[in-house]
Inverse folding.
């Protein structure tokens, strides 16, 4: 059984009286341990799809199952709890909290758990170790480079050890070198730590790292292999 | 508890705005506590008034006097045990800005009837024995550095006392043993002022001691009836009503002070509420990120509301502390009619509760705004 199962997911936005169709009967299966790339032109619905997977938005029609959970039918509160336990989200603009240090940013999701202060410290330092930023725990986001900020954001995403990592254009704002580091890191998380990853990207180089790439166009899917994308 | 750190960090984000909110609450609470202290002073003076002392005035006003001959008539009224009298002197010490109350009293009977004026037996005797002696409250003494043995010179404030300055010898410092007497006044011999008066034998008010407080009204009526249809008609009231008459000379203070306090509190609510709403709007993305990480909207609500509450309470503590430091009988330039009481514990607790109330109400809308945020919309706003 696939870890993620999207069935006929449709999403329309209402602006005033006009309905804007964004996703049209999208069905995807993501097996456990897959590193899935999502590509497509701007406005094709990639972020919308990722947000639905993350449980921060709800489909207009269709169903979304992750593991044993039918997320599309959870209450707001239950969905928040589900996100905290199961999803790590990585944003294009890192979205670290500027008044918190790297350590405190990574600790944030752990404040929702029952872990003790010492246990939280262990988890945070482990996560910072994985992204190779243990020595930056006391730095504030403005004291870090973009690449470092994104690695802190990745540490924040993995600190609760979720099975699913979702990344929305994680290298979209980075220079080539930093982007390479972030992509290598994601690949390691997939291979070594067995995280299932869904990554939205513009960048064909980024997509190359994925084990499978899907193309979204005007809200519908076109399946391709990584080799076909490269060209 | 682990969220306290987050609340503190949130408040430190925009230091200027946090300072503005804290200070506006501090000022509101300071004003509230100070105004209450003034009201407390009035009420305490009225409450502490003796119910066995009744005061006789000229019926027309506090500022007209009566002949000493009234003393006989009052004293012979059934129910009256003892009698004393006093005049308002209204002298000027150095400069009108150094205002304090001076009373010309009939010393023996006055001290007998006002045990609230606490003097050592030696000072009492020294005062009674010196025709130009005076006693001053310890609060007043502290304010101007008066000591026993000092000479105080007062210029005449009311023309009836002629034009020559009055010299007094400080014979004692009294303590106030009850709110009916403040510690900011000066008392001296009625005779000394009367000798120089161009219209001698005049009394500002008589105070009669009655045996039974339940008879206060009857005795008062009996006194006033004696002088009815005379050129010097009187109006006799209990000391409590007399205090109230003093207070009413300042208009309806309760209402006035109450409205000022209310206006200040409402303004503060808007200031605090608006700054908090601004900071929530600025943090839209952050809040959306925290919600994405799994923070429930109820927690977001509490974080924002908690930040407001904390700022308001800090402001409240500052305001109350300042009021406690500044609004004291010794530091305030208290006049005769405005007994300053200081900020008591009940007042401080009320002021702190008020600050908490401001914090809660001001935070309600911003916290609701923050918790109702739609995550995807908030995230899109930056991208
Ligand atoms: N909250 C929203 N309200 C209205 N329209 C939206 C909203 N989110 C996305 N859209 C629209 O849906 C379409 C797809 O958006 P998005 O999923 O962000 O595309 P992509 O990430 O592929 O660039 C766009 O046309 C966008 O304007
Ligand atoms: Mg997008």
């Amino acid at each position: 059984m696939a870890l993620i199962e999207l069935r006929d997911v449709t999403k329309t936005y209402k602006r005033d009286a006009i309905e804007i169709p964004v996703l049209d009967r999208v069905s995807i299966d993501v097996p456990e341990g897959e590193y899935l790339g999502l590509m497509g032109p701007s406005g094709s619905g990639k972020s919308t799809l990722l947000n639905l997977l993350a449980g921060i938005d709800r489909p207009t029609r269709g169903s979304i199952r992750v593991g044993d959970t039918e997320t599309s039918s959870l209450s707001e509160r239950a969905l928040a709890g589900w996100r905290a336990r199961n999803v790590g989200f990585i944003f294009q603009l890192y979205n670290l909290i500027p008044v918190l240090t790297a350590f405190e940013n990574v600790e944030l999701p752990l404040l929702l758990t029952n872990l003790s202060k010492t246990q939280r410290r262990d988890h945070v330092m482990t996560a910072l170790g994985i992204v190779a930023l243990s020595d930056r725990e006391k730095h504030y986001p403005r004291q870090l480079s973009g690449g470092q900020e994104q690695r802190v954001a990745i540490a924040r995403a993995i600190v609760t050890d979720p099975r699913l990592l979702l990344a929305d254009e994680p290298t979209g704002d980075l220079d080539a070198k930093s982007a390479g580091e972030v992509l290598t890191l994601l690949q390691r998380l997939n291979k070594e730590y067995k995280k299932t990853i869904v990554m939205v990207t513009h960048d064909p180089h980024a997509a190359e790292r994925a084990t499978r790439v899907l193309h979204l166009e005007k809200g519908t899917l076109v399946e391709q292999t990584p080799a076909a994308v490269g060209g | 508890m682990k969220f306290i750190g987050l609340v503190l960090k949130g408040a430190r984000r925009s230091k200027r705005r946090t300072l503005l909110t804290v200070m506006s609450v501090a000022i509101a609470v300071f004003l509230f506590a100070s105004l209450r202290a003034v009201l407390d002073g009035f009420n305490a003076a009225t409450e502490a008034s003796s119910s066995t002392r009744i005061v006789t005035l000229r019926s027309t006003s506090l500022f007209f006097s009566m002949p000493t001959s009234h003393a006989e008539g009052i004293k012979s009224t059934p129910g009256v045990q003892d009698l004393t009298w006093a005049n308002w002197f209204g002298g000027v010490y150095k400069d009108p800005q150094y205002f304090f109350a001076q009373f010309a009293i009939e010393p023996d009977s006055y001290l007998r009837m006002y045990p609230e004026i606490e003097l050592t037996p030696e000072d009492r005797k020294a005062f009674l024995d010196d025709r130009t002696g005076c006693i001053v409250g310890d609060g007043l003494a502290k304010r101007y550095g008066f000591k026993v043995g000092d000479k105080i010179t007062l210029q005449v404030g009311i023309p009836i006392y002629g034009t020559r300055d009055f010299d007094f010898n400080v014979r004692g410092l009294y303590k106030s043993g009850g709110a009916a007497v403040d510690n900011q006044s000066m008392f001296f011999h009625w005779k000394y002022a009367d000798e120089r008066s161009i219209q001698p034998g005049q009394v500002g008010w008589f105070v009669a001691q009655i045996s039974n407080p339940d008879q206060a009204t009857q005795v008062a009526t009996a006194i006033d009836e004696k002088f009815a249809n005379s050129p010097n008609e009187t109006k006799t009231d209990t000391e409590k009503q007399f205090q109230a008459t003093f207070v009413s000379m300042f208009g309806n203070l309760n209402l006035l002070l109450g409205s000022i306090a209310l206006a200040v509190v409402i303004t503060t609510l808007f200031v605090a509420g608006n700054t908090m709403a601004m900071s929530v709007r600025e943090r839209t993305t952050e809040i959306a990120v925290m919600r994405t990480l799994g923070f429930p909207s109820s927690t977001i609500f509490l974080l924002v509301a908690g930040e407001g509450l904390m700022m308001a309470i800090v402001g409240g503590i500052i305001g109350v502390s300042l009021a406690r430091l500044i609004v004291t009988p010794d530091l305030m330039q208290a006049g005769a009619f405005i007994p300053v009481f200081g900020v008591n514990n009940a007042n401080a607790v009320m002021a702190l509760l008020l600050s908490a109330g401001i914090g809660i109400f001001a935070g309600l809308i911003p916290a609701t705004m923050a918790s109702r945020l739609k995550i995807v919309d908030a995230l899109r706003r930056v991208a």
Remarks:
- The CA atoms of residues 304 and 367 of chain B lie 5 Å apart.
- Residues 60-232 of chain B form one domain.
